[in-house]
Amino acid sequence: MRCHRAIPGSLLLCGSFLFAAVHGVDGQIREEDVRYPSGDLTLAALLLSPPGPGPRAAAVIIQGSGSSDRTNAWSRDIAEMLVGHGLAVLLADKRGSGASEGDWRTAGFEELADDALAGVAFLGDRAGIDPDRIGLVGLSQGGWIAPLAAARAEVAFVVDVSGASVGFAEQSFHEMANTTRQAGFGEDAVAGVLELNRAAGHYLLSGAWEAYRAARERGMDTAWGEIAAGFPSERDATIWTFLRKVFRYDPAPYWLQVSEPVFVVFGSEDERDNVPVAESVRRLEFVFGSVGKTDYEILVVPGVGHGIRLERHPHPLAPAFAAALGRWLDEHVSPDSGPR
Known about the structure:
- It is a single chain.
- This protein is an alpha/beta fold.
- It has 2 domains: 3-167 and 250-332, Rossmann fold; 172-246.
- It is built from 11 helices and 12 strands.
- The chain has a 10-stranded mixed β-sheet, sandwiched between helices. A two-stranded antiparallel ribbon has the order 2-3.
- Strand 7 (56-62), helix 1 (73-84) and strand 8 (88-92) form a beta-alpha-beta unit.
- The termini are close together.
């Protein structure tokens, strides 16, 4: 096992599953529309598999923030990349998205981690899949959920793509500052947006609605009013339920408990967008080092952002990412990769 940081140039009916829409894509990828239970909910997903009988390793994709399902082009590209490396992939419709029941806005990361583990359990009962080689691939916000799920149940591996390693609240300030700058506003506007973000956080923690409402109204009267308008306007807006559940979330205690091999990737340009990359790398290395973990790899791909994509390149994902992840999967997930 190696530790290094690389910076290179079915419907559930009476206990049985019903599968539909089974077909191949260019003779290379087999697709199945599937349904499986997560608590009282029925979740929907697309199961992608390479040709051949198996048994093969598999991965559960954990979608990012907001509503996201199998039609998300980014998660589909990553799923197909994993299939290209010989894995079966469960590309789920996030609860409340696509054909999945429920509502992510009234859930928290714990419930979303339960959904991911329900996918692992579903794959573990599938013919052609090795139940001892099923892992998690968290995308963006899903990268927060992946260590939480892995700390709660045994999986084979964890991959985190562009998931911040700082807490939810801290990441929100980083992202809001960058959103304001990207919109062309100066540092005075950044300060105003961050003050509004602080008021929102204070409301979440203390219920101080009037202070938040006043801060939002002040923001609406500024040049950056469109940003202020993106904050919830109603005291009982459903999104507050989700935010209240996740605002205090910190992934570090869960990363401390992850005993499985870990691969983490960031795009260097994400530092100026969604994720504080340098701080995320520093915290991961500190956490893993504090427990003597060696079976992890952190990759920072230069010149790409949150999606780890190269502009004007024939392949949608950065080749350095695809190559490094493929090698890592060969080392840690293939049948002859040794004990995990």
